[in-house]
Write a structure and sequence with these properties.
The complex is a heterodimer of chains A (about 140) and B (about 800). Chain A is an alpha/beta fold and about 140 residues long. Chain A is about 30% helix and about 30% strand. Chain A has a domain of about 90 residues: Beta Barrel (OB fold (Dihydrolipoamide Acetyltransferase, E2P)). In chain A, strands 2-3-4-6-5 form a five-stranded mixed β-barrel. Chain B has about 800 residues and is α+β, with helices and mostly antiparallel strands. Chain B contains 20 helices and 24 strands. Helix content of chain B is about 50%, strand content about 15%. Classes of the chains: A alpha/beta (about 140), B alpha+beta (about 800). At the A-B interface, helix 1, strand 1, strand 2, strand 6 and helix 3 of A face helix 14, strand 3 and strand 13 of B. Strand 1 of chain A pairs antiparallel with strand 3 of chain B, so a sheet runs across the interface.
């Protein structure tokens, strides 16, 4: 058998293996409702933090437990518990992604990814303010 | 009537736009002229060459002109230009002004274009008969890159983004009444500034190095395409080889600089996080390493020509794909480090498609000539094992690419896949076995001779390094006890890669450095793998908090500790103490001291102190920057995960009091506050209403409270409960010295309890930090490896250049 054939076969086999493993290992972006239906499975949920409700963070008793309320894209609000310290500047995150699973009525997140306002796209008043303010 | 704006410097922008248009058209003219020189041999190729070179010169000057102008605008703070306003400010130190230049997308395309100009100049000077075909391809690339700055809009189609656009014309600001005012500029005090997160010396050196690496991948590609165009399907390899190794060295060091930056200044918690942006630049490096090796095979025995052409093409296209990933905004949810979309996605895709199709068409046209010789490589030949190594590298690149491309897959197929929940673990589980094979091949391949070798001889030569590696691996394994078999395998193979190549360098090459590029680079790779393995697998989070309630095995929550100012806590073999904080500009430095107990004297001895930073960053959100103490054998990495910032104190009222907290008390009760204790002494229903300016028919009750501070000094306060009509309210009384005030807000007549509201000043609460500390053992192997790999690549480049010169003579 010629080399080129070996390459072909090996590459196709590996590419298939990679695709299969990526698909099977990959998580899915879901809503809290769907995560609830598959309790115990790990998912990614995108949503917004409810800033009206208090954060559950008392570093003096437990620095490694941070809770907050978050609404997913359908508006369904769930209490999220994260097993780390409160991320710096959490209040400013526009949009967050939590990775974890539903446990009863709570979502236990092992990762909290924040999307911060990196590009400027505020209201007109904010834009003017931004132009004239001296940082 | 047109508004006459005051104080603008429009001449620079006009000149800049001239340069932009000139750089684009000159590149186009140069590409076409080179094409004529290549294809119309009988039509006075020399005059075409002259035209091509002149237009290249104009193109190069224009690109340099754009950079110089933009730098000048940033340096002199001309905020009427959007790019200047967006990326710089008056307070910026001069050393970071270059960083402003490439913070934005337009600037980073400029740097890339500039490096192409520099490398092309070398081609023109040294290329001889390769100049025309190679430069033709290079200038085609330049046409595309220069178009990224055009900033033309036809309806919905946008071509490029112009760095000289005026702020008042920029889409976000154009309709603001503010910028319609003639004197708007005098009211703008400052630019938005360079993101403080990026005000770091790495931001000055990492991007230009990485872009030089990117630019270097274009040259072997241009050689391959030029070779196919001029029907020299094999001959391109020899002159392109030194460029390939140059690319391996520069791109490699650029990527590792990014890793070092991430490790040192960003809180990734390590030097490699498999972040999509990191992956995007790693993949072309892997394929370039593969390409360089098969090109070597081809140079020796004429085989592997297909793989060479495919791999140099793949490398270049993957560089384009990497810019697409990081600049199209497609990574959105999976990476926080990507650029935002400037609406150039279509352009980038077109660019990728153009060069991919060009390569495919050329390969098909020349397929008969590219065909490999019929004989197959012998399994005891060096080329066979190098080829296998290339295959493993390709597999590695494919795995990283597919997993990183999940957002792209979602976009195309409308799926909702997310990256694996533990992405780092997923990448490692694939890449670790591949790394084992690569390390193994690095160890043995050099000992095989080209064409065919004697198996016994190879085994004999490998014995010494094998045994040495076994011993070292045994010692390290004894010390660390790696958790998995594949860790032990990688430990052994990476050490063997080091010993085998060292042995080769000493016994076979007799220490001749000039010929040892490969050995040195391979020793470097061995050290990189070894350092990555030990520092990653054996990293130890020493800031374990044992006191907390755990949420179960699957939900460990004890990697951070709380440290009060002045307190000392045990952490690993150290004791840590938080000394206090200091604000300097946008950075708050937290001083953490590390102690060790001296067992003979029993005293605490200070070892070192670290100052991790929390940076107040309005644009990216506050970020924390770790501090690391380096030992020869390990690093201690300390990182503030949470701290109460001054900004958090906005909950306090204007006198600095926090929100009062109610306590139900009866006579004789005592409660402890942060700096004192207080006792409810008695209820006083004989209040002098005149004194408190109360009405005669108000109902008023006083609560006599004794406050005792830590020095046993006593104070008395009397907050008053007032019922006016049916509305209750309270008159507060405070102990100013202790920063505490009391209110008497409610009476529970049934239980006989009084509600006393107590508010303390914010300044009373004890300052604390929550931090994470990690020990990275033997991470210095990694940095040592990087340096060796870089040196090795340069030695290889130098040798190729010398060989080529000899060949010409």
């Amino acid at each position: 058998m010629k080399k080129i054939h070996i390459i072909g076969i090996v590459l196709i086999a590996v590419a298939l293996a990679v695709i299969v493993s990526t698909v099977s290992e990959s998580s899915t972006y879901v809503t809290f409702g769907e995560a609830q239906k598959n309790e115990g499975r790990t998912f990614h949920v995108i949503g917004k933090v409810n800033l009206q409700k208090d954060f559950l963070y008392n570093p003096e008793t437990n620095a490694n437990l941070f809770g907050f309320y978050m609404a997913d894209t359908t508006g369904n609000e769930v209490k999220v518990m994260y097993n780390g310290s409160k991320p710096q500047d959490f209040e400013k995150a526009e949009k967050i992604v939590v990775v974890g699973k539903m446990e009863g009525q709570e979502f236990h997140a092992s990762q909290v990814l924040m999307k911060c306002p990196s590009k400027y796209n505020g209201t007109e008043a904010e834009r003017t303010k931004n132009l004239t303010s001296s940082l | 009537m047109e508004t006459q704006f005051i104080g603008e410097h429009l001449q620079y922008g006009k000149l800049g736009n001239v340069f932009i248009i000139l750089s684009f058209t000159a590149a186009l003219v140069s590409a076409l002229s080179y094409a004529f020189q290549v294809f119309r041999k009988n039509e006075d190729p020399l005059s075409w060459n002259r035209l091509a070179r002149v237009s290249f010169f104009i193109h190069g000057c224009s690109v340099s002109g754009i950079i110089a102008l933009l730098y000048y605008l940033i340096h002199d703070h001309y905020f009427e230009y959007y790019y200047v306003w967006q990326h710089s400010s008056t307070t910026l130190q001069v050393k970071y002004m270059w960083a402003c230049l490439w913070e934005g997308q337009e600037g980073s395309f400029l740097v890339w274009t500039f490096w192409h100009v520099v490398l092309s100049t070398v081609i023109i000077i040294r290329g001889k008969d390769w100049e025309a075909p190679v430069m033709m391809v290079m200038m085609m690339i330049q046409v595309f890159l220069a178009s990224m700055l055009l900033g033309l809009e036809f309806g919905h189609i946008k071509i490029g983004s112009n760095p000289f656009i005026l702020l008042r014309n920029q889409a976000d600001f154009a309709n603001l009444p503010f910028v319609q005012m003639p004197d708007y500029l005098s009211k703008m005090k400052d630019g938005r500034g360079l993101n403080p997160l990026l005000q770091n010396y790495w931001m000055v050196i990492h991007p230009p190095t990485l872009f030089l690496g990117f630019a270097a991948t274009a040259i072997p590609f241009a050689f391959a395409m030029g070779g196919l165009l001029t029907n020299r399907v094999k001959e391109w390899i020899k002159p392109a080889l030194s460029w390939a190794f140059f690319g391996v060295g520069i791109l490699g060091i650029g990527i590792l600089m990014g890793g070092a930056w991430a490790y040192e200044a960003l809180s990734f918690g390590g030097f490699w996080a498999w972040d999509p942006v990191e992956n995007a630049s790693l993949v072309p490096w892997i394929t370039l390493v593969g390409a360089a090796h098969v090109m070597l095979i081809n140079k020796k025995n004429g085989t592997s020509l297909y793989s060479s052409i495919i791999l140099v093409t793949a490398t270049f296209v993957l560089v384009l794909y990497s810019t697409f990933l990081t600049r199209s905004g497609i990574l959105g949810e999976t990476s926080v480090h990507a650029f935002t979309d400037l609406g150039m996605t279509g352009q980038l895709l077109l660019y990728m498609a153009f060069f991919t199709i060009m390569a495919i068409v050329l390969i098909i046209v020349r397929r008969k000539k590219i065909k490999d010789p019929n004989e197959d490589e012998h399994t005891s030949s060096r080329e066979f094992w190098m080829f296998m190594g290339m295959l493993v590298l390709v597999i590695s690149a494919v795995q990283v690419t597919i997993t990183t491309s999940i957002p792209v897959i979602n976009k195309i197929f409308g799926t909702k896949m997310a990256p694996p929940a533990d992405a780092i673990d997923f990448y490692n589980s694939w890449q670790l076995p591949l790394a084992v094979i690569v390390a193994l091949l690095i160890s043995v391949a050099q000992y095989f001779k080209w064409k065919k070798s004697n198996g016994k001889e190879v085994t004999k030569k490998l014995t010494l390094s094998f045994i040495t590696a076994l011993i070292f691996a045994g010692i390290i394994e004894y010390y660390f006890r790696f958790p998995r078999v594949q860790h032990v395998l990688l430990l052994f193979t990476s050490i063997w890669a080091i010993t085998a190549n060292l042995d080769y360098f000493i016994r076979v090459l007799k220490g001749n450095v000039k010929h040892s590029g490969a050995s040195i680079a391979h020793i470097g790779i061995g050290f990189i793998l070894l350092g990555a393995l030990i520092s990653n697998v054996e990293k130890q989070v020493i800031s374990r908090n044992m006191l907390n309630v755990d949420l179960g095995k699957d939900f460990p929550n004890n990697e951070n500790i709380l440290l009060y100012k002045g307190d000392t806590l045990a952490m690993g073999e150290y004791y840590v103490s938080y000394k206090g904080k200091e604000k300097e500009g946008v950075n708050i430095f937290y001083e953490i001291e590390y102690f060790k107990a001296n067992h003979t004297t029993g005293k605490m001895e200070k070892q070192f102190s670290l100052k991790p930073i929390v940076q107040l960053n309005n644009r990216m959100g506050n970020v924390s920057e770790p501090a690391t103490h380096r030992f020869l054998s390990k690093d201690i990495y300390t990182h503030i995960t949470y701290a109460e910032l001054d900004e958090d104190k906005n909950k306090a009222d204007e006198d600095g009091y926090k929100e009062p907290k109610p306590h139900m008390m009866k006579e004789g009760d005592t409660i402890v506050a942060s700096n004192c204790m207080y006792t409810f002494v008695l209820l006083n229903n004989n209040i002098d209403k005149k004194k408190y300016e109360l009405n005669d028919d108000d109902l008023a009750l006083g609560a006599k409270i004794k406050v005792t501070d830590v020095n046993k000094k006593e104070y008395y306060v009397e907050p008053i409960f007032v019922l006016r009509g049916s509305t209750p309210f309270t008159l507060y009384d405070e102990v100013e010295k202790l920063g505490i005030k009391f209110g008497f807000s409610k009476i529970d007549t049934e239980k006989g309890l009084m509600e006393i509201s107590v508010a303390e000043k914010q300044s009373n609460s004890r300052d604390f930090v929550i931090m994470k500390a990690i020990i990275f053992p033997q991470i210095n192997f990694l940095w040592l490896g990087c340096i060796l790999m870089f040196i090795g690549s340069w030695v290889a480049v130098a040798k190729r250049i010398k060989d080529n010169n000899k060949g010409i003579n």
